[in-house]
């Protein structure tokens, strides 16, 4: 019972950190306005892990790889912590477990990144209808632009309605069903073999 409660707490806190680190990675890539309170919050939440990693991991073409590595390390610690608490045990031998946990962490990171994209697109679509002049719209538009614009260029408005958010949702769901599931099968296959 206590292990389940600790596992829930660990999962919640670490997943929120992973979302923040992924947001930081995305915001750095799009050159989001750092003066915005939301941007400052994301930076404040992730700075303790990202700053030390930046000494070792340089950026690449404007992308903050240290944020991405911090998110992956957090996912690795989460999977290991949940296995240690017995919430999600991992069967197998020690060398296979290490590689499997690393792959499971990457898979978990990919899953959370897809959920983050879907959440941002959903929030941007709703806010564009309800309050298009909102200050949050500037940040959401910047965060969703890399995912929506390529589709908007190819898909015309249908009756004045932009269907690109729906296409992004469908593509993310397909990636979750096909790619993420396949990677999980590979990782769990490494544990059983």
Polypeptide structure, described:
There is one protein chain. With 193 residues, the chain is an all-alpha fold. It folds into two domains: 1-89, no CATH class; 93-193, no CATH class. The chain has six helices and no strands. It is globular and about 55 Å long. The two termini are 31 Å apart. The relative contact order is 0.12.
Fraction of residues in H or I helices:
over 70%
Rg from Cα: 19 Å
Question: In total, how many domains does the architecture comprise?
Answer: 2
- Which sequence of SSEs, written as H and E, runs from N to C? HHHHHH
The largest β sheet comes out as: none
- The pLDDT mean sits at 89
What is the CA-CA span between the terminal residues?
31 Å
Shape: globular
Number of helices: 6
Q: Notable features of this structure?
A:
single chain, 193 residues, mainly alpha, 2 domains, 6 helices, 79% helix
Q: Quick gist of this model?
A:
This protein has helices at residues 2-30, 37-54, 65-84, 94-130, 135-154, 164-192.
Break the fold down into its secondary structure elements and pairings.
Layout lengths: L1 H29 L6 H18 L10 H20 L9 H37 L4 H20 L9 H29 L1
Helix pairs in contact: 1-2, 1-3, 1-4, 2-3, 3-4, 4-5, 4-6, 5-6
